[in-house]
Write a structure and sequence with these properties.
By secondary structure, the chain is of the alpha+beta class. The protein is built from 18 helices and 24 strands. The strands form seven sheets. It has a seven-stranded mixed β-sheet, sandwiched between helices. A five-stranded mixed β-sheet has the order 21-20-22-23-24, sandwiched between helices. The longest helix has 26 residues. The radius of gyration is 26 Å and the shape is globular. Bound molecules: adenosine-5'-triphosphate (ATP). The site of adenosine-5'-triphosphate has 16 residues, from β11, β14, β17 and α13.
Length: 526
């Protein structure tokens, strides 16, 4: 078995990533947007399978947040908001990325990402050296090796020094130092090798548009770059109408837009994407406890669908303008460990600023303390699309399995949590040219479709039909054969083990529901 994200060398990983992208297209998960016009950079459309999987991911998050917590309620706020909101939140002044152009190739890059690439290279060298030594020595002491091997120590120190200088330059907006660092590290355009760079300048990531009835700057609207602000400005509406007491949370799923400078990693970095965010309103001073609490809760949510070794926490070196503590949940994508979710302690930054700019009180009266205060906030923010990519890249497996004649054959299978799978059950007649089998299969489909998402297919031989379902991750396939006509039983085949059992048709709905229902997943979070 060969998981698509196993540690492989760089070019193999690139190949596997390309395969993931083409698998998404071939099986109707994701298409490039506006493909007939050659696509639109950083924008993608979800096909029939993708729409199902995306909805299941959202349902898993929504239920884990809103259904499992009595004190978390949902919201669906508008994408357009008053432009002052983005002034108060800091996005107008500070939601920038450092941009650099290569004068020869005319390609545009994020200066911080070019520098991070150098750190990644040093880290990759270290890992390679550690792996070499592990193979060479019995009773290998990894910590000792990392701490004493002169080359490893030197690379680690260099990586650390670069990371610190980068973090500082970002913090104080020192674009000249980013440029100096790029020059000192002799960073070249990854595509052409040219070192002919422009200066580094800040680029604001918000998309803007114009309201029809207000001319000029006043009518300039932004497409929200995060869903969080819709929650902040509705905080008192929600609190009053639901009578929640601090601590309580507001959860929202919705589109966000960022004019990303570089959007090259498929759905990892898009210009239009979807977020699942939850703001948890708490007493000032309790933020570190809640921060810890939500770190654990969110990691448990990820671990219920993703192997633990592909997940890790990474503290922020460079805190955003609104945070006093921040950590990423990183997933090992085919291109390395990268941010999947952010957990931030945002203090009273947002509510405080909205209070100051709007002139409206953003305070909560705490009946236990008998005092009013602006609550602090801990937020959890995960991208639907990144979660989608994490689920798929973890699931996609090529393996050699015996075929019906016992010969080796290969299959591609999406081993994802059954509750997330786009189709739960496929109904397949053994022979498409037999009216009785087809009639029976269609009758079974008509019963089962009320319980979960089913697919009927009679357009190929049974072996091929199984492979097709494996490739979209369908956990169960029913085969309607001649015995079905005699005794009303079917074989039910499980995706991962490919084991088949014979069960009465009357029990299929219960069996499939029991094994694929979202309830199983949610119970793991208890
Ligand atoms: P990055 O550092 O990768 O740009 P970020 O720290 O700016 O991400 P947040 O502002 O914390 O991201 O957003 C929360 C989550 O939204 C991220 O963890 C990610 O899952 C998702 N997200 C952010 N930007 C994008 C994007 N351009 N495309 C897809 N998902 C995104």
């Amino acid at each position: 078995m060969n998981s698509i994200t196993q540690s492989l060398n760089h070019s193999m990983q690139e190949e596997l990533f390309k395969r993931l992208v083409s698998h998404c297209k071939e099986y109707g998960f994701i298409y490039p947007s506006s493909e007939v016009y050659d696509g639109l950079g950083g924008v993608y459309d979800y096909g029939p399978m993708g729409a199902e999987l995306k909805n299941n991911i959202k349902e898993y998050w929504w239920k884990a947040m809103v259904q499992l917590h009595e004190n978390i309620v949902g919201l669906d706020s508008a994408i357009f908001m008053h432009p002052k909101i983005w002034k108060a939140s800091g996005h107008v002044d500070a939601f920038n990325d450092p941009l650099i152009d290569n004068k020869d190739s005319k390609k545009r890059y994020r200066a911080d990402q070019l520098i991070e690439g150098e750190i990644d290279k040093l880290e990759a060298k270290i890992e390679k050296e550690v792996e070499k030594a592990r193979k060479k020595f019995d009773n290998f002491d990894e910590a000792l090796f990392r701490g004493t091997n002169p080359r490893v120590v030197d690379w680690a120190q260099r990586a650390d020094a670069i990371a610190k200088r980068l973090a500082n330059a970002m913090k104080v907006n020192d674009m000249a130092d980013l440029k100096a660092l790029i020059e000192e590290l002799e960073i070249a355009d990854p595509d052409t090798g040219s070192r002919n760079w422009t200066e580094v300048r800040q680029f604001n990531l918000m998309f803007s548009t114009q309201m029809s009835n207000i001319a000029g700057e006043e009518g300039k609207l932004y497409l929200r770059p995060e869903t969080a602000q819709g929650i902040f400005v509705n905080f008192l509406n929600v609190q009053k109408t639901t009578r929640q007491k601090v601590p309580f949370g507001i959860a929202q799923i919705g589109k966000a837009f960022r004019n990303e400078i570089v959007a090259r990693q498929f759905i990892f970095r898009m210009r239009e994407f979807e977020q699942m965010e939850m703001q948890y309103f708490i007493r000032p001073g309790s933020e570190m406890d809640w921060y810890q609490y939500w770190k654990e809760k969110r990691m448990a949510w990820h671990r219920a669908v993703t192997p633990a070794q592909k997940l890790r926490f990474k503290d922020h070196d460079n805190l955003a303008h609104y945070a006093n503590a921040a950590v990423d949940v990183q997933f090992e994508f085919p291109f390395g460990f990268k941010e999947l979710e952010g957990i931030h302690s945002r203090t009273d930054f947002d509510l405080g600023n909205h209070q100051a700019l709007s002139g409206k009180k953003m305070q909560y009266f705490d009946p236990e303390l008998n005092e009013a205060y602006v609550p602090y906030v801990v937020e959890t923010s995960v991208g639907v699309d990144r979660m989608f990519l994490a689920v798929l890249s973890n699931a996609l497996v090529d393996e050699t399995v015996p075929d019906a004649q016992g010969e080796d054959s290969t299959r591609t299978v999406l081993r994802m949590a059954p509750a997330l799978a786009p189709v739960k059950c496929a109904i397949l007649p053994l022979k498409a040219n037999n009216d009785e089998l087809v009639g029976k299969a269609k009758a079974i489909f008509s019963q089962l479709k009320f319980h979960f998402k089913c697919q009927y297919d009679d357009t190929a031989g049974i072996g091929k039909l199984y492979r097709r379902q494996d490739a979209i991750g369908t956990p169960y396939c029913l085969t309607i054969d001649f015995e079905t006509l005699e005794n009303d039983t079917v074989t039910i085949r499980e995706r991962d083990s490919m084991k088949q059992e014979r069960v009465p048709v009357s029990r299929v709905a219960e069996i499939v529901r029991e094994r694929t229902d979202m309830t199983r997943l949610l119970e793991m979070l208890a």
